[in-house]
Amino acid sequence: MSGQRVKLNLRIFAIMVVVGVAVIGGAPVARAAVVPWDLTGLTLQAGLIVRGRVVEQTSAWNKPRTTIDTETTLDVVDAIKGRIRREKLVIRTPGGVVRDVGLWVEPAPRFVTGEEVLVFLTPLQAGDYGVVGSVEGKYVLRDGWAMNDALGTAEPLISLIGQVLDIMDAHDVASPLPADWESRLPPAAASPPDPHEPQSFTYNGVHWPDPAPMGEDYVVNTNTSGVSSTQAVAAIQAAADTWTNVSGADFTFTYSDEPSSATDKGRNGKNEIVWKTQTGTSTLATTWVWYWTTGLEIFEADMVINDYYTWDTSGSPAGNEVDLQSVALHEFGHYLQLEHDGDPNAVMYPSIPGGVVKRDLHQNEIDGIRTIYPGPANPCQCDFDGDGVVMLDDINEIVSRWHLTAENPNPDGDPETANYNVTYDLNDDGCIDVRDVSLAVTEFNKDCG
């Protein structure tokens, strides 16, 4: 791709985008079984489950000024599990904006003043509450429906509460809800107000400054015993290069072998990738992106990979292993400021099961990077390797994917073999066949400079 080398421009102001991928599937990993945050897990883990309305939000730096937290005040309507002594409670979540500095945390839940929610909570030391399961533990309530983007669910509120009560009853947990709780709920509309459908791509508006998109090279501290340093760096570089090599986009990740001793994220002017053991969470990795609120320009990004899980770099992970390159590819998508995609096949889908490999970008992600960081138009549709001329190696990229389809992109299940990719489906009909080869032949030996 025609991209400019990325050299980080430090700005005074920062947003940290902490974006995470959750592992699903319940396969055993390094030290314990992966327990996905389904409704049963949320219900049993939460000390308090309430329905209420957001009435106020306040963001502030923590004492060492290393992060920003937001306190959300909730006016409680009903307690479904647990008892509260006051009508209002405070939920603390990472992220927020203080003057010219912002911190965006994903998958931390974000609240909007005035919205109605049902939340699964756990008490914190300061007397306020945290959300169990992060984004999975927050449902938005509207028109009698309860919607959870992280879980991909939308159902009538009366049904959701009924399921929670059934789970509690099965585990001999009493509810403080009154006997007439159903009559206190609003009637459900005929359909949910926000249908949960796959999106083309979602961009949050924050971006690396132009004309050089990123800036300082990223560095990696392979402070993990799960995979070798060489394997870890190779997997991360391969993930970054996948984004860099998108034709028609102008963004380049560059790696530096400068030693890094970092063991956690930190606003220090360096783009660092580290491993850190984090128990009690289904999050595989988080990405912290700092930016200025004025102009929404990023000046730093860090990635923290959860060393609690068993990582694989072979391309054929077992059911209890997570493919490092797939997760890094997802996280680098957040570096670009792409948010989660509702398409389960997309790289930017918020979860990935153990044993699954996602190393090829879908059209959603390709459209996203091309839109956010557009590059100069390439006069050749088939200059896949970007060497400025269409040769047999470019045409072979199509031939090697003969008869692969969008509906069945990897029929042999082997991640090492060529899979369907819309880049090589030149007529965009969902099947790579002779018509695509014919189109490529018309560009053979064409100078794309």
List the defining traits of the structure above.
449 residues, alpha/beta, Collagenase (Catalytic Domain), OB fold (Dihydrolipoamide Acetyltransferase, E2P), Immunoglobulin-like, 3 domains, 8-stranded mixed sheet, 8-stranded antiparallel sheet, 7 helices, 17% helix
What can you see in these coordinates?
The protein has three domains: 17-26 and 201-372, Collagenase (Catalytic Domain); 39-150 and 153-184, OB fold (Dihydrolipoamide Acetyltransferase, E2P) (Beta Barrel); 378-449, Sandwich (Immunoglobulin-like), CATH 2.60.40.4130. By secondary structure, the protein is α/β, with parallel strands linked by helices. A hairpin with a 6-residue loop joins strand 2 (48-61) and strand 3 (68-81). It is built from seven helices and 18 strands.
Structural class, by secondary structure, is: alpha/beta
Report the span from N to C terminus.
12 Å
Low-confidence stretches: 1-19, 24-36
Mean pLDDT: 84
Q: How would you summarize this macromolecular structure in one to three sentences?
A:
The protein has helices spanning 39-45, 157-170, 229-244, 324-335, 363-372, 392-399, 434-441; strands at residues 17-24, 48-61, 68-81, 88-94, 96-98, 101-105, 116-123, 129-131, 138-142, 145-148, 153-156, 218-220, 271-276, 283-292, 297-306, 311-312, 322-323, 351-353. The chain has 449 residues and is of the alpha/beta class. The protein folds into three domains: 17-26 and 201-372, Collagenase (Catalytic Domain); 39-150 and 153-184, OB fold (Dihydrolipoamide Acetyltransferase, E2P) (Beta Barrel); 378-449, Immunoglobulin-like.
